[in-house]
Specification:
Elements: E1 2-6, E2 15-17, E3 24-26, H1 27-30, E4 33-38, H2 47-57, E5 60-67, H3 72-82, E6 87-89, E7 92-97, H4 101-112, E8 119-126, H5 131-134, H6 142-147, E9 154-158, E10 163-168, H7 174-182, H8 187-191, E11 195-196
Antiparallel strand pairs: 1-4, 1-11, 2-3, 4-10, 5-7, 5-8, 6-7, 8-9, 9-10
Helix pairs in contact: 2-7, 3-4
Length: 198
């Protein structure tokens, strides 16, 4: 497993564009700290550190889950059992939460039903969540959330091929918190990108 970071305070820029709309996202323009993780990573084991990031950047949480076959029915049942007001759109489940402890519930559901093979998961937070981040009125892929970057405080994108993206609004000490979360062996290496983690 390895990861790479982009810190706006060091003028580092993560740039990507939607392959359909061609809209470009720049982490530097949006003033967001990015960590990209490639390979299997124990997010549930690092829950405490994820909660710290959430609590320092967000007041309200949201999630979207696009389940893959054969886990759709089980995931829908578990998520509806744990969260009120879940909306459904085009095979996707979306909802919101108010406490960082709910991140753990979502990750536990993911772990117990299919793990990395269960689908695409996005768990995030913002200071005041606009309704469209929490309802099911539109498909919520990563591009959707990046276009809503002004409202994001925190986002964990768990996509296919064991690739994860962690996004957070910078605050004093974020480098240390990201370092602790990803358990890099050397903080200076972490902040200079491309750090393999055993």
């Amino acid at each position: 497993m390895k990861f790479e970071t982009w810190n706006p305070s060091q003028n580092q820029d993560y740039v990507t564009s939607d392959h359909i709309t061609k809209k470009e996202f720049s982490s530097l323009r949006s003033n967001l700290f990015i960590a990209e993780v490639v390979g299997s990573f124990p997010w549930l084991e690092r829950l405490r550190d994820l909660e710290i990031l959430y609590n320092k950047t967000s007041k309200r949480g949201f999630f979207s889950v696009s389940p893959w076959h054969p886990w759709e029915a089980k995931l829908e049942s578990e998520i509806n059992k744990e969260f009120l007001g879940v909306s459904h759109f085009d095979g996707e489940m979306c909802g919101h939460f108010d406490a960082s402890s709910q991140i753990g519930k979502l990750l536990q559901i993911r772990e117990s039903i299919g793990g990395a093979d269960s689908g695409e998961w996005r768990i995030g937070g913002c200071l005041s969540a606009p309704a469209n981040l929490c309802d099911g009125a539109v498909k919520k892929d990563l591009s959707f959330f990046l276009e809503s970057a002004d409202h994001l405080g925190f986002l964990l994108d768990l996509s296919e091929m064991q690739q994860s993206l962690l996004i957070a609004k910078p605050y004093e000490g974020i480098e240390v918190d990201i370092h602790r979360l990803l358990r890099a062996t050397d903080l200076e290496e972490t902040l200079n990108n491309q750090v393999p983690v055993d």
